[in-house]
Specification:
By secondary structure, the chain is an alpha+beta fold. The chain contains five helices and five strands.
Length: 129
C-alpha cells in the first residue's frame, strides 16, 4: 500500500486503490479508516488541497466504513434488540393463541409444572393472612 503524506495536523496520510475504489486514511493518533466507492477525482482533490481536514470532513467522512470493533459492537447491539423484539412477539402471539384456544398447550399448564404462577402467589399470600 502506497501512503501519500498529507499537509494536516490530524490526517497523516492517505492510500488509494483505484481498481477497488477504496481509500484508506491514517490519522495522527494512529487510527485508520477505510472508505469504499471513492472516485479517483475525490482522492486527487484530497491529496492536492491545502486543507485536507476540511475536505475530509465535508466530502469523505460521511461515507466512512466503521472500524472493526465499533462495527461489531453495533451489530451486537442490533442483535440484542432484535432478540428482545422476537421474544416479545412470541409472548404476544402465544398469549393471543391461548386466549383463542388455538394453542396446543395452555400457558397455565407450563407454570403448573413446578413453578408458581403469579395468580397462585396472590392466593397463597391471602391464605397466610
Amino acid at each position: 500500500m502506497n501512503w501519500v503524506p498529507l499537509k494536516s495536523k490530524e490526517i497523516r496520510a492517505a492510500s488509494y486503490d483505484p481498481e477497488a475504489q477504496i481509500l484508506h486514511i491514517r490519522f495522527a493518533h494512529g487510527r485508520s479508516v477505510r472508505h469504499h466507492g471513492v472516485l479517483p477525482h475525490v482522492y486527487d482533490n484530497l491529496v492536492e488541497t491545502d486543507d485536507p481536514e476540511f475536505y475530509y470532513k465535508y466530502y469523505l467522512e460521511p461515507s466512512r466504513v466503521e472500524a472493526g470493533w465499533q462495527h461489531k459492537a453495533k451489530l451486537g447491539s442490533y442483535a440484542a434488540k432484535l432478540l428482545i423484539f422476537f421474544i416479545g412477539a412470541l409472548v404476544i402471539t402465544a398469549t393471543a393463541l391461548e386466549e383463542n384456544g388455538e394453542l396446543p398447550i395452555h400457558l397455565s399448564e407450563i407454570t403448573g409444572s413446578g413453578t408458581i404462577a403469579p395468580a397462585s402467589i396472590e392466593s397463597s399470600v391471602a391464605s397466610q393472612r
